[in-house]
Amino acid sequence: MKLELWRNATLLLQIGGKNILIDPMLGAKGSLGKLPMTDSELLNPLVDLPFNEEELKDKLSKIDVVAVTHLHPDHWDEKAIEFLDKNIPVICPEIIAEKIAESGFKNIISIKDSIIWENINISITEGQHGTGEIGEKMGKVNGFVFKTEDQTLYVVGDSIWYERIAAEIDKHLPQHIVVAGGAATFAVGDPIIMTSEDIIKLCEYAPNASILVTHLEAVSHCKESREYIQKKINENNLENRCLVLQDGMEYSL
Description:
Blueprint: E1 2-7, E2 10-15, E3 18-22, H1 53-60, E4 65-67, H2 78-83, E5 90-93, H3 94-102, E6 108-111, E7 114-117, E8 120-127, H4 132-138, E9 141-147, E10 152-155, H5 163-172, E11 176-180, H6 196-205, E12 210-214, H7 226-235, E13 242-244, E14 250-252
Parallel strand pairs: 3-4, 4-5, 5-6, 10-11, 11-12, 12-13
Antiparallel strand pairs: 1-2, 1-14, 2-3, 7-8, 8-9, 9-10
């Protein structure tokens, strides 16, 4: 199993001989503009993809399936809709299948609980994208568990640490867990994805799993940098199994 972080939440997962593209945000730096409900004037995404457009199209030609956790534009943007082959299989929660179909995609595999695709067991998990009124405005979000005979990867998606994440870990017993870090926060309310404190709690709850941190330094409402999170990981002596992923780098799991 291999994992390559492209940028933000966009991941290329190589598992069971297949290439799975997760949460594609493929637009150029600044293409999403300013984020609503923030005081930032920065244009998003804050960085380009770690390869040029020609290289991107070559990579996309080798994708077997796309998996989408939710439809916020830093996970599914207009460039992804434009660049992806409309016949490529798209795996998603049932709740967003119709919206993806409206964009012209013809081979949508919606999941209520779990499916087996090409000998890979793929399950939907629940998440909580913030608390209170902000959490309600962010809407329903999901994650995925990808499981083969010998390995299990849990992609938590955009969620804070709460009891449901612990329950998903208990249910699926993943060896590897991908979390959205960065403590993204709007002008009001609490963080909508994991803080470094949340990541430490998750590490403590799943002592036998490797933890991989994404969603960093690419959108303007994230408050914690890679350097800050790495410092907290080191302070808690977790550097041997908690890894802050870098854009464009491939990791063997």
